[in-house]
Amino acid sequence: MRFLALPLAFLATPLIAQDCGGPLPAFIEGVKAQAIAEGVPPSAADSFFAGAQIDSEVIAADRRQGVFQLDFVTFSRRLISQNRIDNGNAMSQRYDDTFDRIESEYGIPRGVLLAFWAFETDYGQVQGDFNTRDALLTLAHDCRRPELFRPQLIAGIKLHARGDFDVNTTEGAWAGEIGQLQKLPKEILEQGVDGDGDGRVDLRNSAPDALMTGAQVLSSLGWQANEPWLQEIDVPSDFNWSLTGLDTELTIADWTDLGVTPRSGSLPAQDKTASVLLPVGREGPAFLAYPNFSVYFEWNQSFVYVATAAYFATRLEGASVFDAGTFSEGLSGEEVTRLQEKLQARGYDVGGSDGIIGAMTRDAVQKEQERLGFPADAWPTRELLNAL
């Protein structure tokens, strides 16, 4: 359900611009003024907001992201199916020339982009049906993350001014992402690539445009060409677990000395650096996370999404299914929230008590495990929760 809550009294009141929140007309006028100051014709700014309204379903979706409370093993098994692998291989063949070009120009393996393409829109089949203009307006007006969405709203106006954003027909995800790889307007405006050579950047209808743009975005975020991102490993049972986690980076020579071995294939050059990643603790799968792995967090900040997307990319490049070990499901979302509250009470910044085990929560957990003499593998357990 979409609604526009504008009491008549507001319409008779002078409009005062604000960064977020407050009367919607005043907010829109402030955004228009900023866009015009940045070079948008006033007529384009006016037409962009014609019929604009707040979308309550966008706010509901923003507050409801429980899927990210799942652990890596459960999440990855839910997202990765044989059908998705088969479709990925088919898309790899169908757009072979585009992927060859990406690998040549950007040094990004096709599995990386295929994984994002699969997770974001099922290879372009499910791109979302939210009106993008209204979604951006809603999230920019909402005061939860205006620093992220106000610039995206301005970028949307600029795309509209150049003829690449029809406010009535442009649809996508609830968070304002557009196209087969779900990119935000600012990324499209600044880094959109015409991959099929038709003179337009159309991320909804052109897979080459979407894939080339995705490669350009990853490259701009710091992707190191022709370098690895994630590799499954085996670690000895007496491993020093406090060395695990993305904050500790050692050379391959160092990890080898500590007993790390590849589960298949070989490790890269001895002077390359990496971190040992245990997504669900020492009893689950283990990976070496190379510097390119950090770029994934610029695409999506969810730890479980990032780990799964990076792992799926390796599968699409030929890796085998991970060894789940003796892992058993961890804390419930409610228990994670309680844990986060206890960690915050001890002075840790875990990014809020949202029931999601993100990087900040994992870091705090590992520090408390060390303090209490538990195996410091950054995976929260009921034993740790009870001890706190």
Describe this structure in words.
This protein is mainly α. Among the domains are: 1-66 and 128-177, Helicase, Ruva Protein, domain 3 (Orthogonal Bundle); 333-387, no CATH class. It is 46% helix and 6% strand. It has helices spanning 8-11, 24-37, 42-48, 56-63, 72-79, 82-94, 96-105, 110-121, 132-141, 146-161, 185-191, 207-220, 252-257, 296-299, 303-316, 333-345, 359-372, 382-387, and strands spanning 130-131, 171-172, 230-234, 250-251, 261-262, 273-277, 286-289. A five-stranded antiparallel sheet has the order 4-6-7-3-5. β6 (273-277) and β7 (286-289) form a beta hairpin. The model is unreliable at 1-17 (pLDDT under 50).
Short overview:
With 388 residues, the protein is mostly helical. Helices cover 46% and strands 6% of the residues.
Low-confidence stretches: 1-17
How far apart the termini lie comes to: 43 Å
Named at the architecture level, the CATH assignment of the domain at 1-66 and 128-177 is Orthogonal Bundle
Mean pLDDT: 92
Helix content: 40-55%
What is the spatial order of strands in the main beta sheet? Answer: 4-6-7-3-5
The Cα radius of gyration reads 23 Å
Query: DSSP strand (E) fraction?
Result: 5-15%
Structural class comes to: mainly alpha
Instruction: Please count the beta strands (DSSP E, at least 2 residues each).
Output: 7
Number of H- or I-type helical stretches: 18
Can you write the helix and strand succession as a string? HHHHHHHHEHHEHHEEHEEEHHHHH
Looking at this structure, what is the CATH superfamily of the domain at 1-66 and 128-177?
A: Bacterial muramidase
Give the overall shape: globular
